[in-house]
Amino acid sequence: QAKERGKNNFQFYSSNLNGLSVRKMELEIGLRKALENNQFTLHYQPQMSLVTGKLVGLEALIRWQHPEHGFIAPSEFIPLAEETGLIVPIGKWVLWEACNQRKAWESIGLCDVPIAVNVSVRQFEDDHLIEYISTVLDEVGLEATQLDLEITESIMQNFENSTVILNQLKELGVLLSIDDFGTGYSSLSYLKYLPIDKIKIDKSFVDDILYHSNQGVMVKTIIDMGMNLNFTVIAEGIETVEQLSFLKENACKIGQGYLFSKPLPACEMQNYLLNRKSGAPI
Ligand code: C2E
Ligand code: MG
Ligand code: MG
Ligand code: MG
C-alpha cells in the first residue's frame, strides 16, 4: 500500500512538476523531426457567402499526426513552433502545400476561389518571406489573387516592419486578412492605414452573439465599421442557424464554421468540391 502510494507520489511529482517541461521538450524534438518525416498535413474548411450560399474561399489548417502521441492540435504546437522559430520552415511547407493543392483542384476544374493560409508574425521576421511566396506562386502557377494570407493583430506590435512587409505582399497581389479580429489591440481605424482586404471576426464574439447583448453590439459595430472602411468582413466559428440569422440580419457577407463544414482532409474536401459542382446538396 505504502509502496504503491510512494510510486503514485513519484508519478504525481513527475507528471505535474516536471511533466509540463518534459512534454514541451518532447514536443520540440518531435516538431524538429515532423517536417522531414512528413507528419504534417492540411485540412481545408470552406468559407461561404451568406448572401448567395456559394463557396467563396477555403482555409488551410495544419494538423500534426505524431507517431506516439497521435493527433496534436495546432493550438498546442503552433505557439511552441513560434517560440523556437520552427514556424518559419513549417510555415513554408504550409504555403507550398496549400498553393499546390489549390492549383491541383483548379486544374481539374474543382476550385476557383482563393486559398487562405495562416501566417505567423514570426514569419514576418524572415527576410525571405516575400521572395519565397513569389517563388511558390511562380512554380505552382497560381495567381497571386488566389492566395489569401491570414495574419493576427499581433503584427501591430511591430507596426513599422509589418507595414513594409504588408505593402510588399500587396504589391505581389495576394489578399491580406486580419484573423481573430477583436482579440488583439488594434482598432479598425488603425487597420485602414494598412493594405488589408478582409477582417475575420473572432469566434469568441460569434459564440456569445445571442446570449450577451454586448457581444452582439460588438459584432454589429465591427461589421458596420468594417464595411465603411471597405473591408470584407467574415465571421468565424458559426455553429448554429441562430448565429447565422443574426449575422445575416446585420449584413455580414461571409461566414465560416461547423454549421457549413468542419475542416476536412484533402480527399474529403475534394469530394465536397465535386458534390458542389454536380449540384448535389452540401
Ligand atoms: P484560426 O486561423 O482562427 O482558425 C480557426 C480555428 O477554428 C480552426 O481551429 C478551426 O478548425 C476552428 N473552427 C472553425 N469553425 C469552427 C466552429 O464552428 N466551431 C469551433 N469550435 N471551431 C471552429 P484549428 O484548425 O485547431 O486551428 C487553430 C489555430 O491554429 C488557427 O486559428 C490558427 O491560428 C492556428 N493555425 C492553424 N493552422 C496554421 C498554420 O498552418 N500556420 C499557422 N501559423 N497557424 C495555424
Ligand atoms: Mg485563420
Ligand atoms: Mg481565427
Ligand atoms: Mg484563432
Describe the structure.
- It is a single chain.
- This protein is of the alpha/beta class.
- The chain contains 10 helices and 10 strands.
- It has helices at 2-34, 74-84, 87-107, 129-140, 159-172, 188-191, 203-207, 213-228, 241-249, 266-277, and strands spanning 40-49, 55-66, 70-72, 115-118, 147-152, 175-181, 198-201, 232-235, 254-255, 264-265.
- It is globular.
- The model is unreliable at 1-14 (pLDDT under 50).
- Bound molecules: ligand C2E and magnesium ion (3 copies).
- Residues 45, 61-62, 73-75, 78, 87, 91, 94, 118, 120, 150, 179-180, 203, 236-239, 256-258, 263 line the site of ligand C2E.
- This is Diguanylate cyclase/phosphodiesterase with PAS/PAC sensor domains protein.
- Residues 24-277 form the EAL domain.
